[in-house]
C-alpha cells in the first residue's frame, strides 16, 4: 500500500522536474544559443540594460559624492618656479639670481600634492563610482541606505545569484566546451579556404556565446575601420574579457604565453584551427624572437590580424598607460581600438593582486552586466622620421581621446615595480638648466 | 548630474581607532569644511596603507611614483615621521598635511596689502625651513644648504659651482654674521613672508584638512 501511495507523487514530481528542465533548456537554446550561432540579437540584453538604468535613476540618484581633491593646469617646472619667485620677490627679475631659497617650495608642493592624490596609484584599483549601483562590492562608503534601497539590493542579490549566475555559468561552459571540441575537429581538415572559413565561424560563434555568458552589451562604432589581414590591432587593456569582446566581432590571431591547466587546453586546441601565436614562458623574455614571430605573421597576408595589448597589464579603464614599443617596431599597419566600459553595471577591471582568475570571473558573472563601447579607429602607420616610441605615443593619444580616458606616460609596470631613476634625473636636469642657464646669460652680458 | 550632496561618511569605528582622543563630532565642528574632505583623505590614507595595519611606513610613501621621482621626495617623506619613528598613523598624517592649508577665499577678499595671519604662513615656511635644517638646530648651515642643493640638481652642476651658489645665498641672507641662516633670516630672504605659496589663479585647490587644532 505504501508503494502504491508514493508512486504517483514521485511520478508527478519527476514529470514536473522533467518539464521545467526541458522548458528551461529550450528557452536557453532558442533565445541565447541559436542567435549566438547566427550572430543575430533579439534585443533582450538592451531591454535589460534600459530597465536597470531606470531602476538606478529612480531609486539611487540622490547618493552621489564629490570626488576631486586637486585640480590644476599643466605647467612646466621653470614656469612654476618663476611664478613662486615672482610672488615673493619685489626685486627686478631681469637680474634674477640663479638660486632662490623659495625654489624649494616647488618641489615641496609637488611632493605634498602627490601624497594627497597622484595620477598613477589609483589606476591599479577599481574606479570609484559616483553613485551606488546596488552591488555590495561597490558599496564602500554609502552608509545612508534607506529601507527601499535595502529591499532593492536584496532583490538584486536573489536575481543575480539565483537566476543570472547559474544561467551564465551554463552558457560559459557551453561556449568554452564547444570551442575546444569544434576547433579540435576542424584541426583535422586539410589547410585551405574551407578550413579558414569554418575556423572563423566556429571562433565567432563560441565567442558570441561567451559574450552572452557575461551578459555583455557591446556597442561597436565605426566598423568600417575593422582590422584587416596583415595588420596589428592594438587596444587598451582592462581585463581578459577584452579579448572576448573584440573576438566576437572579428577574427584575430591571439598572442600570448602558453598557460597550464584549462587555459592551456583551450589555447592548444585553438591553434589547431587557425594560427595563433603562443609563446613558451622561456621565449617570452627573448624580445628578438617575439618580434621575429610577429613580423613573420604579419608578412603573410592570408593570416588574420594580430591582437595585442601594448600596456602589458590590466589598467582600471580610467586611463591609458605607456604602450610598450615592441609591437610598433614591426612596421605594419596598426589598427587602434578603444574600449570603454560603463562601470555602473559591473566593473570589469581585473585587479590581479586582489583576485585570481576564477574569483574574477565569478564576480563578472554575478554583476548586473558588462556594458561597453568599442571604437574602431582609422588605421595608422609609422611616419617618416618618427621612431617607435613616438608612434606608440601617437596611437595611445588617439585611443585615449576616443575613449575619453586620461593619457598617461607612466608605465603600467609600476603596478608591481619601482619607478626608474631616470625620471628623477630629468627633473634635476631641468632645474639645473634653470640655475646654470642664468649664469651663462650673465657671463655673456 | 545635478545633485552633489555629500553622503559619504566615514565609518565612525574605524576613524575613532585612528584618533582615540578626539571624537569625530568635535573635529567636524571645528572646521568650516565638510566631513567629506576629511573622509576623502582618510580614504587616501587607507589606500596607501598596503599592510592594512593603520599606519604608513616610508615604503608606502615611496610607492607613489610622482613622489619617488621628486628630488626632495625623501626629505618630504621624513617630515611625516616624528623623531626616530618609522610608522605614521592617520593623526600624524593629517597634522603634517595641515601645514599646507591654503588661504581661504574669505581671507583672499580682504585687503591684499594687509598681512596674512601669521600662523598659517609661518607654518608653511617652518615646514620648508625644516626641509633644509636636517639637524634641527634652528640654523641652516652651509653644508645643509649644499645637501639640499645637491638633491635638487643631481649630477648636473659641479661642486665648485654649487659651492659658490651656496656661498652667495648665505651671504645675501645672513644678517648676524654667523655664516648660517636662521628662521628669521630665512623668511626675510626674497620677501618670503609675503610669498604666495600656492601661486595664483591657475591653481584651484579644492580641499585640504584643517587640523591645525590638533596640536601636541
UniProtKB/TrEMBL annotation, chain A:
GO terms for biological process: phospholipid biosynthetic process; triglyceride biosynthetic process. Keywords: Acyltransferase, Lipid biosynthesis, Lipid metabolism, Membrane, Phospholipid biosynthesis, Phospholipid metabolism, Transferase, Transmembrane, Transmembrane helix. The chain crosses the membrane at residues 15-44, 145-163, 169-189. Pfam families: Acyltransferase. Pathway: Phospholipid metabolism; Lipid metabolism. One of its GO terms (molecular function) is glycerol-3-phosphate O-acyltransferase activity. GO terms for cellular component: endoplasmic reticulum; membrane. Residues 231-342 form the Phospholipid/glycerol acyltransferase domain. It is found in: Membrane. SUPFAM superfamilies: Glycerol-3-phosphate (1)-acyltransferase. InterPro entries: LPCAT1-like, Plipid/glycerol_acylTrfase. It comes from the Eukaryota. SMART domains: PlsC (SM00563). Belongs to the 1-acyl-sn-glycerol-3-phosphate acyltransferase family. This is Phospholipid/glycerol acyltransferase domain-containing protein. It comes from Oncorhynchus tshawytscha (Chinook salmon). The gene is GPAT4.
From TrEMBL, chain B:
Residues 36-71, 120-155, 161-196 form the EF-hand domain. GO terms for biological process: protein transport. It is found in: Cell membrane; Cytoplasm; Nucleus. This is EF-hand domain-containing protein. It comes from Oncorhynchus tshawytscha (Chinook salmon). PROSITE patterns: EF_HAND_1, EF_HAND_2. Gene3D superfamilies: EF-hand. The gene is CHP1. Keywords: Calcium, Cell membrane, Cytoplasm, Lipoprotein, Membrane, Metal-binding, Myristate, Nucleus, Phosphoprotein, Protein transport, Repeat, Transport. It holds the Pfam family EF-hand_7. InterPro entries: Calcineurin_B_homologous, EF-hand-dom_pair, EF_Hand_1_Ca_BS, EF_hand_dom. GO terms for molecular function: calcium ion binding. Belongs to the calcineurin regulatory subunit family. CHP subfamily.
Amino acid at each position: 500500500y505504501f508503494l502504491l501511495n508514493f508512486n504517483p507523487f514521485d511520478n508527478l514530481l519527476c514529470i514536473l522536474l522533467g518539464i521545467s528542465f526541458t522548458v528551461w533548456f529550450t528557452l536557453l537554446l532558442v533565445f541565447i544559443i541559436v542567435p549566438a550561432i547566427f550572430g543575430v540579437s533579439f534585443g533582450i540584453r538592451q531591454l535589460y540594460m534600459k530597465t536597470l538604468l531606470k531602476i538606478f535613476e529612480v531609486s539611487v540618484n540622490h547618493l552621489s559624492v564629490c570626488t576631486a581633491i586637486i585640480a590644476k593646469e599643466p605647467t612646466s617646472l621653470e614656469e612654476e618656479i618663476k611664478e613662486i619667485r615672482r610672488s615673493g620677490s619685489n626685486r627686478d627679475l631681469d637680474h634674477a639670481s640663479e638660486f632662490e631659497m623659495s625654489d624649494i617650495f616647488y618641489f615641496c608642493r609637488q611632493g605634498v600634492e602627490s601624497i594627497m592624490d597622484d595620477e598613477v596609484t589609483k589606476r591599479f584599483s577599481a574606479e570609484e563610482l559616483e553613485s551606488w549601483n546596488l552591488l555590495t562590492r561597490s558599496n564602500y562608503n554609502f552608509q545612508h541606505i534607506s529601507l527601499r534601497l535595502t529591499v532593492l539590493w536584496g532583490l538584486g542579490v536573489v536575481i543575480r545569484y539565483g537566476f543570472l549566475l547559474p544561467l551564465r555559468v551554463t552558457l560559459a561552459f557551453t561556449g568554452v566546451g564547444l570551442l575546444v571540441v569544434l576547433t579540435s575537429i576542424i584541426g583535422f581538415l586539410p589547410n585551405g579556404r574551407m578550413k579558414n572559413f569554418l575556423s572563423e565561424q566556429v571562433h565567432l560563434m563560441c565567442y558570441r556565446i561567451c559574450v552572452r555568458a557575461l551578459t555583455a552589451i557591446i556597442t561597436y562604432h565605426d566598423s568600417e575601420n575593422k582590422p584587416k589581414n596583415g595588420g596589428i590591432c592594438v587596444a587598451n587593456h582592462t581585463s581578459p574579457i577584452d579579448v572576448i569582446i573584440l573576438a566576437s566581432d572579428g577574427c584575430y590571431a591571439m598572442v600570448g604565453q602558453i598557460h597550464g591547466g584549462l587555459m592551456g587546453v583551450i589555447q592548444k586546441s585553438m591553434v589547431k584551427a587557425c594560427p595563433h601565436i603562443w609563446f613558451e614562458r622561456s621565449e617570452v623574455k627573448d624580445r628578438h624572437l617575439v618580434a621575429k614571430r610577429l613580423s613573420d605573421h604579419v608578412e603573410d597576408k592570408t593570416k588574420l590580424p594580430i591582437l595585442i595589448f601594448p600596456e602589458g597589464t590590466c589598467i582600471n579603464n580610467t586611463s591609458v598607460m605607456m604602450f610598450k614599443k615592441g609591437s610598433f617596431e614591426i612596421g605594419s599597419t596598426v589598427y587602434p581600438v578603444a574600449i570603454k566600459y560603463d562601470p555602473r553595471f559591473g566593473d570589469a577591471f581585473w585587479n590581479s593582486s586582489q583576485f585570481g582568475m576564477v574569483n574574477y570571473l565569478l564576480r563578472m558573472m554575478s554583476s548586473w552586466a558588462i556594458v561597453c563601447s568599442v571604437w574602431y579607429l582609422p588605421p595608422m602607420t609609422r611616419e617618416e622620421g618618427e621612431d617607435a616610441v613616438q608612434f606608440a605615443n601617437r596611437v595611445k593619444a588617439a585611443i585615449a581621446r576616443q575613449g575619453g580616458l586620461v593619457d598617461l606616460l607612466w608605465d603600467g609596470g609600476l603596478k608591481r615595480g619601482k619607478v626608474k631613476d631616470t625620471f628623477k634625473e630629468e627633473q634635476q636636469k631641468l632645474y639645473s638648466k634653470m640655475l646654470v642657464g642664468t649664469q651663462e646669460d650673465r657671463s655673456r652680458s | 548630474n545635478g545633485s552633489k550632496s555629500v553622503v559619504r561618511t566615514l565609518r565612525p569605528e574605524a576613524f575613532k581607532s585612528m584618533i582615540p582622543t578626539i571624537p569625530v563630532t568635535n573635529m567636524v565642528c571645528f572646521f568650516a569644511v565638510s566631513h567629506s574632505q576629511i573622509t576623502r583623505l582618510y580614504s587616501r590614507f587607507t589606500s596607501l596603507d598596503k599592510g592594512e595595519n593603520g599606519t604608513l611606513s616610508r615604503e608606502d610613501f615611496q610607492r607613489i611614483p610622482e613622489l619617488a621621482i621628486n628630488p626632495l621626495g625623501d626629505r618630504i617623506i621624513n617630515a611625516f615621521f616624528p623623531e626616530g619613528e618609522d610608522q605614521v598613523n592617520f593623526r600624524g598624517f593629517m597634522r603634517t598635511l595641515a601645514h599646507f592649508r591654503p588661504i581661504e577665499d574669505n581671507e583672499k577678499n580682504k585687503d591684499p596689502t594687509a598681512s596674512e595671519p601669521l600662523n598659517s604662513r609661518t607654518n608653511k615656511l617652518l615646514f620648508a625651513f625644516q626641509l633644509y635644517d636636517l639637524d634641527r638646530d634652528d640654523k641652516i648651515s652651509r653644508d645643509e644648504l649644499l645637501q639640499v642643493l645637491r638633491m635638487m640638481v643631481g649630477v648636473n652642476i659641479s661642486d665648485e659651482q654649487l659651492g659658490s651658489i651656496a656661498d652667495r645665498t648665505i651671504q645675501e641672507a645672513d644678517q648676524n654674521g654667523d655664516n648660517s641662516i636662521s628662521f628669521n633670516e630665512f623668511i626675510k630672504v626674497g620677501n618670503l613672508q609675503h610669498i604666495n605659496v600656492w601661486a595664483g589663479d591657475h591653481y584651484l585647490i579644492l580641499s585640504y584638512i584643517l587640523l591645525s587644532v590638533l596640536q601636541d
